[in-house]
Design a protein that fits this description.
Mean pLDDT: 91
Oligomer: single chain
Helix content: 10-25%
Largest sheet: 7 strands, mixed
Strand content: 15-25%
Length: about 220
């Protein structure tokens, strides 16, 4: 808990444009965000009329933030691994976990648990850092160290689990979900990718592409 409390405010205050872009354009849907931080993303979703109800969940109450914004229908402070949510099953049209699952002891179980709250046809949207990124590998393989970073990033000190692209697919591989999309954040229209790296990927037939990915986005659709 102490490491979370030591993080700068910017860690909790930001609008996840990349994740919002993956939400269907439907003003009548209900959206749940796990790891909602200061609530900026769910407030933005409500302001853009992309949902009639938004609910945020996080470990901490953050004063003087959008957690208290009247546009937020509910903000719940709890540990999602230790507690259930007080909602009916099949309640939400979209569930967002942006850079959350890597912080959990058992993210696979949490994905399954949260999917129960998702309507059939609803979307489970996640983002997960890529441990295979060359910066991380350089530290581990060349420098011979697995130093954690207290400020954040791929080797964030609060990360408990680590994923490559294949593992992201496995994370969402449960009978109730059908993976619709796995993409590098660099391929997202909201992200400006380094031109030199893009050219390098083209010239090398994208063979080394995964080594330059910071983060993967994944969307699963609930079946049935």
């Amino acid at each position: 808990m102490r490491y979370y409390e030591d993080k700068a405010g910017v860690y909790y205050n930001n609008v996840r444009e990349d994740l919002i872009a993956l939400i269907p354009d439907n003003p009548n849907q209900r959206v749940l965000e796990i790891g909602a931080g200061a609530g900026d993303t769910i407030v933005s979703i409500k302001e853009r009329q992309l949902a009639k109800e938004v609910v945020g969940v996080d470990l901490f109450f953050l004063s003087n933030t959008n957690q208290d914004n009247p546009l937020v229908d509910q903000f719940i402070v709890l540990d999602i691994e230790k507690n259930d949510l007080d909602f009916e099953k099949n309640y939400f049209d979209a569930i967002i976990c942006g850079d959350v699952l890597e912080h959990l002891v058992d993210p696979w179980l949490v994905v399954k648990k949260l999917t129960a709250y998702l309507k059939p046809g609803g979307l489970f949207i996640i983002s997960v850092p890529n441990i295979r990124n060359y910066n991380s590998l350089f530290k581990i393989v060349i420098k011979g160290t697995f130093d954690y970073d207290p400020a954040g990033g791929i080797l964030d000190k609060t990360h408990l689990r680590f994923f490559c692209r294949r593992n992201v697919s496995q994370l969402m591989d449960i009978p109730e979900l059908e993976v619709q999309l796995i993409m590098s954040i660099h391929d997202h229209p909201k992200y400006k990718f380094n031109r030199k790296t893009k050219l390098f990927n083209i010239l090398t037939g994208r063979y080394f592409e995964e080594f330059f990915v910071n983060q993967y986005l994944c969307v699963g659709k609930k079946i049935g």
